[in-house]
Amino acid sequence: MSNPLLSLSFRSLPDLDTIEDNKARMTRVVSMYFNRAADILNLDPNYRLILALPSRELAINLPVQMDCGEIHIFPSYRVQHHVAMGPMHGGLRYRPDLTLDDLRALAMWSTLTAAVAGVPFGGSMGGVVCDPSQLSNQELERLTRRYVVEILDIIGAERDILAPDFSTDQQVMAWIMDTYSMHARQTVTAIVTGKPLELGGSHGSHEAIGYGVWCLLESALAHLGGNPSQTRVAIQGAGRRGGSAAKLLYEAGYRVIAITDSGGGVYRPDGLNIPDVLDYFAHKHSLAGYLEADPITDSELLTLDCDVLVPAYLQNQITADNVNQLRCRILCEAAHGATTAEASQTLENSDIYVIPAIMGEAGGTIVRYFEWVQNRIGFRWRRHVVLERLRDYVTRMYRNVVGVAETYGVSLRDAAYISGVRHMSRDLALRGIYA
Predict the structure, then answer these.
(1) Residues 6+ apart with CB under 8 A from 173
(2) Which of 201, 267, 367, 390 has a CB 3.0–4.6 Å from the CB of 258, allowing a cystine?
C-alpha cells in the first residue's frame, strides 16, 4: 500500500569543487584585509577573536511543498555577525551555489560597510540554496514564508532586519513583512528594508547603491582630478546596482561606453544611450539583441580601455587571470567579493585607484538605515531629502577614509577596513563583554 504522505526529496546541489573554490576566494579576501587592519591598529587579541567570527549561525533544512505535491528540502541559513553597533541588518539571497561560508564573509562585509558608512547597524546575511528561476511564484512565496517562520526567534526590528539581495526583491520583502507581522499580531514594517513604497518602503531605495557609486566617483574625481564629460565608464550589471549607476552617471554627463548583464552586453566607444539601453533591458530582461551598439561579454568588458570600471553584479570577477589586463584608471567595486584576494594584492602594486566594495555598496546600507528610521518614527521623507542625506553620508565617508589612508600611508582599501575595524572595536570596547 502506498504511503499517504507526500513524497520527500532534496533539491540537487551544485558541484562541490566549484563551491569550495568560490568559498575560499571570498573568505580569503575579507580575512586578509580584516587581519591587516587589525595588525595596523594593534587590535586587542580578544577583540580580534570576537570580531573575526560570527556571533550566531543558524542552519535549516527547509521543507517546502511544491506545486506537484512533493515536498522538497532546501538547505537554508542565517548568519549574524556583530551586534555591538546596533541591531543587525543584512540581505537574503537565493542562489543554487550558495554556501554557509559565503554568508559568513558577506555578513562580516555587511558589518564593515555599516561601520565605514557611520550607520548604527551590525551585519548579517541569510540565504536559501535554490534556483529561483526554476520555482513558480507560488513555490517562491511558500519557500520565503517558511524561511521566515524558521528564523522568527532570531530576527526582529530591533534584532536582525532583512533586506533584498541576489534574486530577492520588493515582493519577497513584502512576503517576509507579512509573515512576521501575522505572527507578531501587528504590522511590523521595520522588520525588512527594500520593500514596496506602499508598504513602508523608502524613496530612493531602488537607486541607492547606484547613487552611492555616483557620489563616490564625484568625490574621487574632485580628489584625483577629472571631468565627468571626459570620463568613460564600463559597468558590469544592469539591475538595481549597475543599471541605476549607469542611469545616474549618464544623467551627470559621464560617458557610459559599456554595460553587461547575465545574458550579454553592449559596447559603444563614443557612449551608449543609457535610457534606451535600460528600456530595452526592462522589456527584454536581457541586453542580447540590442542593435544600437556592439555586443560584448563580461570578460571583454572587464578589460576594456576605460577610465572607470564598475563591477556591480557577481563575486570573483577580477582574478589573478585577468587583473593584469585591466585598463581602467579607477576601479569602483559595487559588489562584495568582486575582486579575489590574489587580484587585490596585484592591484596594490598597480596605478589603478581602487574604491573597495565596503564603500561602493554603502549607498544601499545607508538608505536601508533611513528606511528603518522612517518606519520606526512612522513618517516618510521625500525623495530629495533621502538623496541629499545619502550624499552627505557618502561624501563624508569618502573624506574620512581618505584621511585614514593618508594617516597610515595605505591604500584606500586598507584604509576602509581600518576605519571599519576601528569603529567596530570602539563600540565593542565601550559596551564591554558581558560575562
Answers:
(1) 162, 163, 164, 192, 193, 194, 195, 196
(2) 267
Q: Measuring CA to CA, how many Å separate 207 from each of 153, 234, 310, 365, 372?
A: 32, 18, 15, 12, 17
Backbone angles phi, psi at 66, to 5 degrees: -85, 165
**pTM of the entire predicted model:** 0.92
Whether residue 145 is found in the same domain as residue 266: no
**pLDDT of 296 above 80:** yes
Give the rounded percent of residues in the chain with a pLDDT score beyond 70. 94
Q: Which domain holds residue 271?
A: 202-435
DSSP 290: -
Sheet containing 294-295, strands listed edge to edge, beginning at the edge strand earlier in sequence: 294-295, 264-267, 255-261, 232-236, 308-311, 330-332, 353-355
Task: Return the C-alpha cell found at 281.
Answer: 533591458
Instruction: Look at residue 433 in the predicted model and tell me its pLDDT.
Output: 86
| Type and span of the H or E element at 65 | strand 56-65
Amino acid identity of 151? I
- What confidence tens digit (pLDDT) does each residue in 198-234 have? 999 999 999 999 999 999 999 999 999 999 999 999 9
- List pLDDT tens digits, range 156-173: 999 999 999 989 999 999
Q: Give the model's pLDDT for residue 117.
A: 97
Percent of the residues in the chain that have a pLDDT greater than 90, as a whole number: 88
Question: Looking at residue 106, which CATH number applies to its domain?
Answer: 3.40.50.10860
Crossing angle of helices 16-41 and 341-348, rounded to 10°: 40
H helices within 202-304, ranges in order?
Answer: 208-224, 242-251, 274-284, 298-302
Quick one: average pLDDT of 341-361?
Answer: 95
Cα–Cα distance, 429 to 431 (Å, whole number): 6
Same domain, 307 and 409: yes
Structurally, how many domains does the chain consist of?
A: 2
